Amino acid sequence: MRAQFNPQNMKIKFNVKFATAFGQNIYITGSCNELGNWNKENAIGLKYDGGSQWSVDLDINEKKFDYLYFIKDQRNSDITEEWARHQFELPTVRKQIVIYDTWNYPSLPEFNLNTAFFEHLAPKFDVKKVRKFKKNSHRFSIPFRILNPNEAIYLLGNFQNLGNWEENQALKLNPDHDGRWFVDVDLSQAEGVIEYKYLIKDSISGQVKYYETGNNRYVLPTQNDEFALVNDVSFGQPQQQKWKGSGVAVPVFSLRSEKGLGVGEFLDLIDFGKWAKNAGFSMIQILPIHDTTAKFDWTDSYPYAAISVYALHPMYLRLSDLKDLSTSEIQLIASKSNELNQHAQVDYEEVNQFKNDFLQKYFNKNFEKISKNKSFLHFLDENSAWVKPYAAFSVLRDSNKTADFTQWKTNSKSSAAVLNRLFKSNSKQYKNVLFYVFVQWQLHEQLSKTVDALHDLKLTLKGDLPIGIYRHSADAWWNPELFHMDQQAGAPPDDFAVLGQNWEFPTYNWDKMKEDDFGWWKSRFQFMSRYFDAFRIDHILGFFRIWQIPMTATQGILGRFEPALPVTWNELHNRGIHLDLDRLTQPYIHYDLLFQYFGSDTENVILAYFEKKNDAGEYKFKSEYDSQRKIQNILGTDHAFTARLLELAANVLFIKEEGEEILLHPRFAQYNTNNYKWLGKNEQDKLYALYLDYFYHRQEEFWRQKGLEKLPALKQATNMLTCGEDLGMVPKVVPMVMNDLAILSLQVQRMPSDEKLKYSHPKHAPYLSVVSPSSHDTSTLRQWWKENSDDTQYYFNQIMGIYGQAPYELHPDLQAQIIDQHLYSPAMLSVIPLQEFLGMSQEFRNSNEDIERINIPAVFPHYWRYRMHVNISELANNDEFTQRLLHKHQDAKRG
Fold first, then answer.
1. What is the pLDDT of residue 130?
2. Percent helix / strand / coil, the chain, rounded to 5
3. Phi, psi of 141 (to 5 degrees)
4. What is the mean pLDDT of residues 771-776?
5. What are the start-end ranges of the E strands in 540-671?
6. CA dihedral sign of residues 407, 413, 416, 417
């Protein structure tokens, strides 16, 4: 019997090509003892061989291990590391191994092509065992996701065994795991440099479809006792061959079907997916689907204010699919469904009240059976880390009649003891906590069934990851140390919200999160990957810096960026700005200014809200009104003077950081304040120069470092395709970091990233982007068309290229032209709201366009209740409209 090959003392030579800067060195670390077991302190240094080549010879006793390269500078500080790990599995050869690696950049195309998104779009190739020949000297491998089942990848080169550049002699690669392809070749007789390229052929006709772009690749011959593993990356596709997809964006709650109960449900996505597939779509994009039940009223309709970043919203559960329903229960569901489905929009309160009551009764009736169900108990065990805190929080919220845990008489602080007590079988709340676990179990079952059905259709699902967490949530209750509960997150002012946005979420304690390498975030990403193939990071700018608003303010206008490099007192003086701290940081209120605001009511307003500050005619707010929060709490939002008093409270030049040290941040749009306008020209000029430096120059490198501190680790935690919502006031470094990490940007036509443009054109979008004419935060195309006639006229003439007067209405044919701009874009993804596609059809466009808008960011809270005005079945049964969309996708070459 032949002795089994023993890899002990196997010599492996690692080679990698990378152009380092002076003073930098490359190291290797990995999962085996010889590579330091991922401990960078024990990493092995490579030697420089010239020509950007680095190498090291090592004795390694493992048959299988992972590894990566990283760089240190002359101060021994980490500079950068590879994005993805290399995987080594010992070939069945009795030779010394020489590995030729290519540095894994995250922006290489295969890092997106090999995500779960494309895994579900690609045909399945059987991984077969390929006969290995001792005489082979090289194994060439490359990751590449083939999306056309009639295509195959080949290797061609300048030696006889590589085809000698004869296309009909090219070598066909074999499918390997994880989207990789390989072929073993005998090049032992080769002399000199071996040159080669990869190409794609039609597997039926054998015709070459295209070669990879770029220069020829090359590798060196081996010695007699060597076997070379050539680990290539970056199959560069010609622009016209790059895959492009089309997605339809629709909130789950907006779906309408005969089976629904006044709201869209997870299972509705299956029938909607069948229609979408027939219409040529490759993806469905939805809004956040997590439980938002906090106040038990319509304000809970805000999908970005989840009480748990894990728990799914109970309203998406289809009651009629529950097991063992009685005849009376089935009839009750049918009757209520018929009633609620008559509504043009979602009645959030009625839908959720009915579903909650029904589920409570159903659970109580079937408690004994459910509590012993093996699948249920398995779900509880597998998800206990989040579902137990969520269930406990929900029960305590119900018993205390508020989600604000700071108001609870007991258990306002979470602990393992609280969970243990509530989940004991003899606890008075045992049945109640298990109810919330049961609902989550059923939601998981129905959503998993939905995802499997979509994947069977070769459709992908894209989710939405909110940047913030709700202040009164299970997450804040269970992990308060991860958040700054004394601050609020929001967004600076823009054209859509001139006073900024205050989401009222706490901000993140990034320093604390960093202690365990952002474990909380990684857990979120991994949880999302259960259901989603791609995801949109809401407000990705928050990973670089967040707009932080003090609790004393109600409007986003009084926020500042955090983290940010502040303005110091010395800097102010060095710049010749000698205003006192009070003038810089407190509202400047003069009698003449008050008269501008209140006219004949001025004296009464002063008497009620202000007190004299000095004899120069200046005033200050009385202590009971000296913040926006106090003003709004006392007067409410509808008082005749509230808006004007809030504006006066925001009449400051700088926002001061808390603490004794004077660290200042310019108030946004400082130059528009009366405080600024009442200064002399010399002071205004100096303040404006400082303002420009603060917002547009000094922060860039600082913010780049903050983004790179978080995003690479988080993106590596999941195999989903990653997209980022990067709209608003975007630092220059953000698109660069996103591109380096292969995170798709969002390009909304009426919100161009280039501030010099009025509108962007989708034909100029980069490949790594998502293009759209609108979003859930904007008006629909039909609404926007009527908002500003001058803007519409400009768009009609300059962007659409049509002469003459723009019509008052956006007719279906014009709407179709706008959609075509996006479908024909070079962007990887075109994702367009469903309402816009329906607007192309005279038959399917809503007669009441104003109920199709989903959200108005300037209005908070806003009622999120848009619902399709036609049933999914009506779309599915209309072959003409479906075929029209299919042909559009085919003509635009969107798969």
1. 54
2. 35, 20, 40
3. -140, 150
4. 97
5. 546-550, 560-562, 567-568, 589-590, 610-612, 618-621, 654-656, 663-666
6. negative
